Amino acid sequence: MNRLLKKTVLASLLFSCFLAASTNAFAQTKLYPNEFPLRDVTLLDGPFKHARDLNIQVLLKYDVDRLLAGYRKEAGLSAKAKSYVNWDGLDGHVGGHYLSALAINYAATGNAECKKRMDYMIAELKACQDANTAKNSDWGKGYVGAVPNSKAIWSTFQKGDFAAFRAAWVPWYNVHKMYAGLRDAWLYTGNEQAKTMFLKFCDWAISVTASLSEAQMQSMLDTEQGGMNEVLADAYQMTHDKKYLTAAERFSHKMLLDPMSQRKDNLDNKHANTQVPKAIGFQRIGELSNDAAYLQAGKFFWETVTTNRTLAFGGNSRREFFPSVASCIDFVNDVEGPESCNSYNMLKLTEDLFRLHPSANYADYYERTMYNHILSTQHPDHGGYVYFTPARPRHYRVYSAPNEGMWCCVGSGMENHGKYSQFIYTHQHDSLFVNLFVASVLNWKEKGLKIKQETNFPNEEKTKLTVTAGNTRFKLMIRYPYWVADGALKITVNGKAVAYTAHPSSYVAVERTWKQGDVVAVELPMHNSVVQLPNVPNYIAFMHGPIVLAAKTGTNDLTGLVAGDSRWGHIAGGKKMPLNEAPVIIEDDESTLADKIVPVTGKPMTFSLSGIKMANKIDAVLEPFYKIHDARYEMYWMRLSDSQYRSFADSLAQVEQQKLALQKRTVDFVAPGEQQPEADHFIQKENSNTGNNQDEFWRDARDGGYFSYRLSTNKESNLSLLIRYWGNERGPRNFDIYIDDVKLTSENLSGKWNSNKFQNVEYPIPDAAVAGKDFVRVKFVPQQKNMTASVYYIRLLRK
């Protein structure tokens, strides 16, 4: 046994002894009464324990003082280390996630270094909070944030002047991460100092928004704010002080709350991970106030996202936005697939909804997303985190490296892999719910009961639960998953069959007086299924039980596989493989496909494609998607009938050729109106608006305003500027386009085309305008009493 392992084992033993003597030191059940504290559920060997333990190793490679640097800077304290790049403008957001991750992993494992770092962070953050209170008494009492330029932003914001606030990158989203970090330090480890600091920080949020009208609050909430309504609701549950519930309601965005409470889906073209935390807050407010509108809003949001907007592996969104029905083909065309943060937050919402209504459909979704998305977003060797998971055929994912690429999904990734034991078991009244089939040991202290779950699922289709200590009566609620056929579930207790009347996606209740030595055996026969891509029925994915199956398709051109600190390193920027050259399943009857993939002898969860007729056939097998790394993959497969394939192949080839030719010419591009691309290209704007038309975003500027972006030239010349316009603009559309401060051209689109389709216009750029420059700023300025065009896409092209 190596030294590090010996130390870890010793620390865990000491931690277990400490917990046995101090069962009331932790607060997790004070907010989530149906959950068992993480310390009471021990993971046994398997993929989730491996992921958690590897994640702790990765966490301990980060420099805590660098994570705290922005907090000290904004509090006016001397630097101890250089701040991380942190997506220039979001300094501090990963620090909040990191504090949560330390608390979660200490609670789950007793890792002494996680505890040491957590305590150090809280002490440093207290110094920052005290300094803000002393030095910035006019706006900063209780503040503990690292938002760059905090003083200018919040001192004017509290007076109703949003200019500095809107010029910054999502300030509330940024500070929310530290709210969650402080709450979690108390929630998972019982740290009272963190609780005190959290409540003071909540008081600051109330104070800094006190003079804002309801209209100003709603306007403020148009900017991504993380889960501010959730943490304020948590403060109410912690204190029973009504001011926090009132604040949580003021931080609830009616743009989403009102339609969701009326069961109306208005999510098309909205930034996905801006909305999910709002829904978590709606649910929490409804849970604590019993307000029907809030309860309905949280519940319906979950229902419509999981039913209508979720891919086979549990993720949602493309290019960070919820697409419309017509735009779902973007999942195939684009490489910026579902974002890990979305699933992180959807699982949080799922746990909350299950707490009020322990329905198996919540647990079914949780299992599918935990295995196929969350587990797959960690590299199994070096532990790097994934941002986007492309669904595009034959593309790939990229991974973060410690101390580089401080993306939002790095922050949520730090937390994800420490929480695998959180939802395996829950309890309500006299019932114990077995929600997930994960090898683990439960110590139900209130009942004096211990249960060991032994399973190699999904490699084996069964699990076994053994009572290893205790003697007490309760209902054991065993999930009957949706993926087991009706009547196929088999349960025995001490060898005797259990009769039941339940159906798939429900729970089977087994009530008796349980005693040490009782054994419950559960058989979970899985079968194959085919799942269509939402709103794109000719693209399908294969599943075996809850597990998404995919095929490796090569390792060529994995550009940026382990990303550095580059602005766009989280995007897998290697060559897009032509869709017309991807495998195409040719089958008239889709219902027969599930039975045509056959198990490979001696290789669990591995299936042959040999029985399927396929154009562009590949030599590959299907295996669990979560096991595929460092490779291109095929998760979604085009499926056409024989006649469809003959007519479709030629036209697809032509379209793909045009797309790939444009990609090859592209040096840099930006999608105006989309939050992340605009931030990545350092948008500057004044008197500028955004909107959506034909499922594409646009930006314009009005008289006296402008908007501009910084684009990379890659040190090239002989370039041109391609702008995408709508062909039927209304109103006076005379405007100028600048490269840096030099006018490139004047344009007048008023009545130019009178055509209801998009128009791409290419403007040559003089070499003198780009010579010797790494970047240029492309600026759009309306002429007097005019507007710019609605600009949909901007590309810097090689001529």
From TrEMBL:
GO biological process, alphabetically ordered: carbohydrate metabolic process
Domain Glycoside hydrolase GH146 substrate-binding per the UniProt entry, residue ranges: 661-797
Listed SUPFAM superfamilies: Six-hairpin glycosidases (SSF48208)
Boundaries of every DUF4986 domain copy: 554-637
InterPro entries given in the database record: 6-hairpin_glycosidase_sf, Beta-AFase-like_GH127_cat, Beta-AFase-like_GH127_middle, DUF4986, GH146_SB_dom
One Pfam short name: DUF6805
Signal as UniProt keyword: yes
Signal peptide from the UniProt entry: 1-27
Domain Non-reducing end beta-L-arabinofuranosidase-like GH127 catalytic: 40-421
Source organism (scientific name): Paludibacter jiangxiensis
Name of the protein in question: Uncharacterized protein
Keywords: Signal
Keyword S-adenosyl-L-methionine recorded: no
Domain Non-reducing end beta-L-arabinofuranosidase-like GH127 middle: 432-526
